[in-house]
Structures are given as C-alpha cells and as structure tokens.
Design brief:
The chain has four helices and 73 strands. With 842 residues, it is mostly beta strands. Strands 59-60-61-62-63-64 form a six-stranded antiparallel sheet. The longest helix is centred in the N-terminal third of the chain and has 12 residues.
Length: 842
C-alpha cells in the first residue's frame, strides 16, 4: 500500500492543469446537478471528463479537476442506466430504461444517432477498441446485441444467458466480450467467430457487475450473495471469493494497473482489495447514501462513486490514511445553483423578489421520494444598489428526530399594491401531516407582521385585494373554497365553497375576483375559471381553458381584461400514442364575461403596466410579447433552456424579468427584446449577475462558484475579475445607476492562459515552473508562498525559484500559488495551489 500511495502521490505533484488549446466563445453554465438518483458514471479515455447518468433522464459532463459541470446532454425520455465513451473520447453512448441508446457528441452535446430496442432496457454498454462496434445488454431474456456504429444496424445477437445481462466489457482489442448476468454466470464470447460462446464462469448468485484487469488476465464479479469473485481467465479457475460485504455487491472496478479492485454494496460500503493477496486494503462503511456504481479514472488516482442522493463523489485514493477520515479526500459533483420558482417586481420597481429552492438529502428519506427534500427562501434584490438583501426567513429543514421530519416550504409570493407588504404561502410538514399558513412581512424592516393560520383549510393560492385591506386564499384537498382574511384585523369570511377542484390562482380587479381551478382529464367538470362578485361572493361567470393541470389567472392593470391558461401536463395519452396538447391562453372581457381572444401560448402570464402587452411563455421555453388589441406577436425572447416559471414586468414597463427551471433569472429590454442580464443564485446568500460583454457583479464566493465553459474547459468568474468585474451591475441594467460603465476588452473569441506544469519541490527547495502557450500567449506570471508574492514575471516559459530564501513553515503544509495570464491580460487561471510540506531536516 505504501508503494501504491507513493507512486500516485509522485504523479499527483506533476500537475498538468490545462492540456489542450482553446480559442472559443464563453458559454454561461448553471451548475444544476442531477435531480434524481445517479445510476452510472464513466470517465473519458483521457480522464479529464466524467459523464454521469441519472434517473432524471439527463447525462451530465463534468470537469474532473475542478468539479465544474460542463454541459447537460438530453435526448432520453427515461432514466439513464449505462454510459460508455468511445475510444477517441468524442462520442458518448447512453443507454436508457426506455430501451434506447443515444450516441451523443461530447463536443456540443447533440444527439448523433439513436438506436431503439423494444420491450427491453439498456442496462450495460461497451465500445470495441476500434470504436466501430457497440455491445448492449439488459434484455430480460439475456440477449446481447452487437451494433455497427456507422449504420446503427445489428451485426448479430448472442444468446446463452437465461436472465438479463447486467454488465458487459470488450477486451483483447475488441475480439472478446465478457458478460455478467442475473442468471449467476459470466460468459466470454468470440466476436471473430460470430459471437460464439467460448467460456463460462459460475458464480453462486446473480452477477450485478463485472470488471476486467487491463492486461485481460483477470475477471472480477460482484454478486447478490455479497461476495466478490476473481477468476483467472486463462485457466477458468476461481482465485478468490472475497468476503467483507454485508449486502449484495452492486459494482466492481479494477484499477488501470490491475492491482487494486474496488467494490461497493447495497449497504453503503466500499472496499478496496489487493488483487494479488485478496486482502482488504481499505474499507469505508456507512457511506452518506446508497451507491449505484464505482469506476476508476484512467490514471488510477480517483474513484468515481455514483450515489442515490443525486451526487457523484470523486474519491482521491492517492492520499488514503488508514486511520483518517476520507471526507477531506472527497470532491462532490453536484448542483450549486438555486431553483427559481417565482420572480416579481415591487410596485415601485425598486425591489425584485424571488423564491429560490435547493434540493437537500437526508439518509432517512427514501431516495426516490422527493417530498420534503427542498429548502426554500425569499431573496430580495435591491435594484438601487444592485445587491441582494438578507433573506426573510430561511426555509430550512428542522430535524427534531429521525422519526419526525419537520420543514417549511414556500411556493408563492405576492406584493401588496402599495408595496409595503410581501405575502408568502407556507407549507409546514411534520411527519406525515401538513399545515398551511400565509405570512406577511414588512418590506422595509424584513420583520414578520402577521401569520394567518387555518387548520381546516389547506391554502393553495393567495392574492391581495386592490385596496390591500384583505387577502384572499384559495383552498384545496376536499375543502375547495375561497376565504377572505382581513390584513389588519383577525377577521375571516367564507367567500365561496364547493368549487370543482383545488384553487391554483387568484386575481383581483376592483369588483371581481378571478379564481383558477385545477383540472384533470378524469374530471367531468371542465370549468377552470370562475369569476366572483367581490361584494356578494356569488359566481358571475365561468370559463374553460385548454389543457390540464393548474390554471393561472391575471387581470390587466385596469381590471377590464383577464388572461387565463392551464399548464402542467403538455402531453396526453390518446390511443396509446403520445400527442401534444394545443395549449392556449384565453383573454376574457371581465365585465361582459365574454371570451374575446385565444392565443397559442402557456402560463405564466403578465400584463405590461399600460395593459397593452401580454407576456406569455410557450412550449419552446420562450417568452412571447403579444399586442392585446390585435393578438399578434410583437417580440419573442429566447434564452431560457428549460420551462419558464414566472414572468414580471417592471413598473416602468421597460424591463421584463423571467425565472425558469434552468435556475436563471433573466432581465430583458422590452423595446429591443435583447437580454440585458442573467442572475444566478447559489447557496443562501451568494449570487452573480452577468451582463453584456461578460461584465459581471458577484459575491466573492459566487465568483468562485459560477462559471463559463469554453469547449470542455470551465472558466470561473474570478478568472475574469480584473477586466470584467462591474460593481453595481444590476442597478445599471435596471436604470437606477447612471455611472459610466468600465471599459472592457470586447471578446469575440477566448484566448486561453498558458498551461502550467510544476515539478515536485525536492530537498534542494527548488521550484521549477514550466509554461506552455495555449493560443493566448504567455503573459504575466505571479508566484506566491503562503499568500506573499515572491516573484512576478512576464512572458517566461521556464521559471526557477530557490524557496530556501523565503519564509516557510517547517514541518507544516505551505501553499505555493501560481497565477498565469494570457498575453492580453484579461484571462488568468484563477490561481492554482500546490501544497509543499518540508519534513525533517530538509
């Protein structure tokens, strides 16, 4: 083990931080992470990229060194069970539970081609060494298909297993294929002889995973009986039956040199085995979540672990301390950005309020049960200063006991018309029960003014009356009614009861309350919009919207027009075929109770302050601006990559804010339709706003968290700080700050900073840094020792420094930091840190 660790540690110091040349545009990436269990992961052949596949139906590419998300690959309709890179690393095959294999471009994320199998799942994939063929397995009958990549056609099918194939691997230059099956056997197939079976290895239970040593001499299998078996392929003899797991072994993986075998079981345990002796090297028990797969990086330094808590963990096994805690060796590949479910301007236009949400995991939850796994809070943006204010209440989970899980969730916010109060709908869950309340906060102080609670009614929607004296709440869950609460006094009144379904939205005019009601395809009542007289509570009129799910309503500023539309499900099943629903937003003349216009669009909707424009979303994640008088489209705002959840006009009517499932808030210029800025929120209080020409404002942590991608290389905001940091950017975008903009370099293409390689510091205390041009030239190089600058150089490709002449910490960890710039001086590597420990009498 000492020799193993020393080998890896020595190679680790030979840092190669950037390896290829780029001259490409920057793409802003929101690190959303997976929203479901991660079932599989796979390293690219060069080890720089990790692909992960999830039950959420997406494949994500990650930069291994930084842990940054590079891009998300779409194309599957169901969960991803298997992933495999082509030998050249340019293509990724993803197998799904819907029976499809998508061949995906690693360069741009596009779907190159799709292979479809019926009545099966694709549980395992393997490319041949020349990249021409792809093996796929998972069929419950035990079939294995060999596919020609160029044509997408099946070359032949191998039969011999009696149950589903769980794992397959090409080896010996693609001539032999190994397969492990739930039937308890592992078979070898001769691809040069039509896939003829040439060997069979008998396990004692179902085989979940197999791995082959790089030299093709040894075969390992992880089985349901909690054993790990290792066979000698040439003799067919079982060398070891390794015991140490307490539950079924889910995944096994040989290190590239074949000396180490990693195995993971269903009981949250990982074991590293010495293949030569069959003994345990290291065991990790009580992992934070269940494990789905493990995989070694090509250099053998990192073990990737796909987990049920929606994360991938990268375990640096080069620094294993048998007596220490491995948490310091773990890097997390997970979402950083907050979800955006609502965004709205205050009536005076000085505050932008939004609801942010973050997925959280607790081991006591079932991995597939998302209920209670989000924490939410209200964030207010002060548009006069361009900064975020302290969150009102942080909606975090409170664990009083593992058997009692208590948490609060907020999903609706609304300003009073005078802008003095913000109201939020709160759901509080304790164990299996729920309670609902409406909280009112004072905007100036952030203090809670009032809490409205009603144990009998489950609030589902809220709205202020036009005079702000009352707040209406819609109720659901078998008590479908509307209640009116006095804002200043403790008075309530039942407004209307026995509605057709749960109330999903409310909107006031001076005399009418519009009520949107959920509709489902099983309901015989198609009414989704009720117009109620405010004084009497009696129904004036009702309407039906197109589509199923939640119905949204919003009055125009003068109260004369009402926009209504339904949105949740965009697909319906008709005669076993999936057909899109024609989603429409209807315009209603409220006083006359007459529908005057239908628009092909989706909620959410928002009227401009002058009532002349209606903004809606569409099925392509765009915002449509429509002329109310003609119903014609004025502008289309394109920029969101996922569903739009919220739209809000500024009171001036010059800016529109949108929030989407892509975790971005976007600000648009109404006249030109041009995107003025994007806000991304991370954690509770960290954020960045990115404007035109890559200018940005951000908290310091946001600068280190939020990033661009060029090619397959991440660039964090901090790397652009010297040239593109624009304090108060949000205030400038929204017109509250008229100070001149700083001058920036107009980027058309990105010219990268030099690659750095650092030789290990030896007993002579000499530091050698080598720099290699990556298209951007070699500019300024700054070197720091424990945060003190010890050298500054310009354009040098080799730098030698005698560290003995500077103050360092004997026997402790010293940090050498190297900052390298491109020759134009606008892009740096952000500073890399190298630990240096001086031992003994060195």
């Amino acid at each position: 083990m000492k020799q193993f660790s020393l080998f890896i540690f020595t190679n680790l110091l030979l840092l190669s931080l950037i390896s290829s040349s780029y001259c490409q545009k920057l793409e802003l990436v929101t690190q959303s992470g997976h929203s479901g269990i991660v079932w599989t992961c796979s390293f690219s052949p060069d080890g720089k990229i990790l692909a992960s596949g999830s039950i959420d139906g997406t494949v994500k590419l990650w930069d291994v060194k930084s842990g940054k998300e590079l891009r998300t690959l779409y194309g599957h309709t169901e969960g991803i069970l298997s992933l495999c890179f082509s030998p050249d690393g340019n293509m990724l095959a993803g197998g799904s539970s819907d029976g499809t294999v998508n061949l995906l471009s690693v360069i741009d994320g596009s779907v190159i081609s799709t292979i479809k199998k019926t009545d099966t799942v694709v549980e395992c994939l393997s490319f041949s060494s020349d990249g021409k063929n792809l093996a796929m397995g998972g069929d419950k009958k035990g079939f294995i298909d060999i596919i020609d990549i160029e044509t997408g056609k099946e070359i032949f099918t191998m039969t011999g297993h009696s149950r589903a194939v769980s794992s397959i691997k090409f080896f010996r230059k693609g001539k032999i294929l190994a397969s492990g099956s739930k039937d308890g056997t592992i078979k070898l197939w001769d691809l040069n002889n039509g896939g003829k079976e040439i060997s069979s290895f008998k396990a004692y239970s179902a085989v979940n995973s197999i791995s082959l040593s790089a030299d093709g001499k040894y075969l390992a299998g992880g089985c349901d009986d909690s054993k790990v078996n290792i066979w000698d392929i040439s003799t067919g003899q079982e060398i070891y039956s390794l015991t140490g797991h307490s539950d079924m072994v889910i995944s096994v993986s040989f290190s590239p040199d074949g000396k180490i075998l990693a195995s993971a079981d269903y009981d949250k345990r990982i074991i590293l085995w010495d293949r030569l002796s069959g003994k345990e090297i290291f065991k990790v028990e009580g992992f934070p979540s269940s494990i789905e797969s493990v995989s070694f990086s090509p250099d053998g330094m990192i073990l990737a672990i796909a987990c049920d808590d929606n994360k991938v963990r990268l375990w640096d096994i080069s620094t294993i301390d048998p007596l220490g805690d491995i948490s310091s060796q773990i890097k997390y590949l997970e979402g950083k950005a907050n979800g955006i479910s609502s965004v709205t301007f205050s009536p005076d236009g000085k505050i932008l309020a939004c609801i942010i949400s973050r997925y959280i995991f607790h081991p006591d939850y079932k991995a597939y049960d998302k209920k209670g796994k989000e924490k939410k809070s209200i964030i207010l943006w002060d548009l006069e200063t361009g900064k975020s204010l302290q969150p009102f209440e942080k909606m975090e989970e409170i664990f009083t006991d593992l058997s009692e899980k208590e948490y609060e969730s907020i999903d609706t916010i609304v300003f009073s018309h005078d802008g003095k109060i913000l109201a939020g709908r709160i759901e509080k869950i304790l164990a299996e029960s729920s309670s609902f309340s409406v909280k009112l906060w004072d905007i100036k102080t952030g203090k809670l003014i009032k809490t409205i609670e009603d144990k009998e009614n489950q609030f589902s929607a809220i709205a202020f009356s036009r005079d702000d004296r009352k707040i209406a709440t819609g109720c659901g869950e078998y008590r479908d009614r509307i209640m009116l609460y006095d804002v200043t006094e403790d008075k309530t009144s039942l407004f209307l009861k026995d509605l057709s379904n749960t109330v999903t939205s409310l909107s006031f005019s001076d005399t009418i309350l519009a009520c949107g009601v959920m509709r489902d395809m099983l309901s015989t009542n198609n009414i989704t919009v009720n117009l109620l007289d405010i004084k009497t509570g009696k129904e004036i009129n009702n309407f039906e919207t197109v589509g199923e799910g939640n119905t949204f309503t919003v009055f125009s500023p003068d109260g004369k027009l009402l926009a209504a539309g339904s949105k949740d499900s965009e697909l319906s099943m008709t005669e076993s075929k999936i057909k899109p629903i024609e989603n429409k937003v209807i315009l209603i003349e409220a006083d006359r109770g007459k529908e005057i216009l239908q628009i092909e669009a989706l909620p959410p909707m928002s009227f401009s302050p002058d009532g002349k424009i209606l903004a809606c979303s569409d099925k392509n994640n765009r915002v449509k601006l429509l002329d109310i008088s003609t119903g014609k489209e004025i502008l289309t705002l394109k920029g969101h990559s996922k569903k739009i959840n919220s739209i809000s006009f500024s009171p001036s009517g010059k800016i529109i804010a949108t929030g989407g499932d892509d975790m971005k808030i976007k600000l648009w210029d109404i006249i030109s339709g041009k995107e003025k800025g994007t806000i991304i929120s991370t954690g509770q209080e960290d954020w960045a706003i990115i404007g035109e020409d890559y200018r940005f404002d951000s908290t310091f942590k946001g600068m280190k968290t939020i990033h661009f991608v060029t090619g397959n290389k991440p660039v964090v905001l901090l790397q652009l700080k010297d040239c593109y940091y624009e304090p108060g950017l949000l205030a400038k975008i929204t017109g509250f700050n008229n100070e001149p903009w700083r001058e920036v370099i107009q980027l058309k293409d990105l010219h990268f900073f030099p690659e750095i390689k650092v030789e290990p510091v030896g007993k002579d205390k000499k530091l050698t840094v080598k720099l290699f041009d990556q298209g951007g030239g070699i500019g300024k190089i700054q070197i720091y020792l424990n945060n003190k600058e010890i050298g500054s150089y310009e354009g040098k490709d080799i730098i030698n420094i005698d560290l003995s002449g500077y103050s360092f910490l004997p026997g402790e960890k010293n940090i050498i930091t190297i900052v390298a710039w491109n020759i134009e001086g606008y892009l740096s590597n952000g500073g890399i840190e190298i630990p240096w420990v001086v031992k003994g009498e060195e």
